[in-house]
């Protein structure tokens, strides 16, 4: 295993251990969304990044942003990160931490709609979507 992969795994482990309250709240709430045939994971290394939450089977990533993400330099990095993840075939949903605090049900409805096409509809099996260009995932050594 390369030093970079080891570093990303260790960083993900640190982030899981030191999760902020909004991340902890969403992690608890995600258990209310039935993801048939899959599940969410937190702090998942994907390529050069560590995603806050991922449902890998649906290729859906959830990123939580605190107030510092509104600064131009960080917002530009977030945009570049989102573009890269989308180019790898992932869908990225971003929420502000305040959204979680003020409207958790709305956040969960948005996530459910991203998974199934409508808020809180009956869960159906998720097909494993193909990568857009058929290349192996960089997170799996590709």
List the helices and strands and how they pair.
Blueprint: H1 3-17, H2 21-30, E1 41-46, E2 49-55, E3 60-65, H3 72-87, E4 91-96, H4 97-102, H5 104-116
What series of H and E elements makes up the topology? HHEEEHEHH
Instruction: Write out the strand line-up for the largest beta sheet, numbering strands in chain order.
Output: 1-2-3-4
Instruction: Give the CATH H-level superfamily.
Output: VSR Endonuclease
Query: How would you describe the oligomerization state of the chains in this entry?
Result: single chain
Provide the residue-averaged pLDDT.
76
Which of globular, elongated, flat, extended, rod-shaped describes the shape?
globular
* Strand percentage: 15-25%
Give the number of domains.
1
Radius of gyration: 15 Å
Helix content: 40-55%
Provide the CATH architecture: 3-Layer(aba) Sandwich
What structural class do helix, strand and pairing data support? alpha+beta
Number of separate strands: 4
How does the major sheet shape up?
4 strands, mixed
N-C termini distance: 13 Å
CATH topology, by name, is: Endonuclease, Chain A
Poorly predicted ranges (pLDDT <50, ≥5 residues)? Answer: 121-142
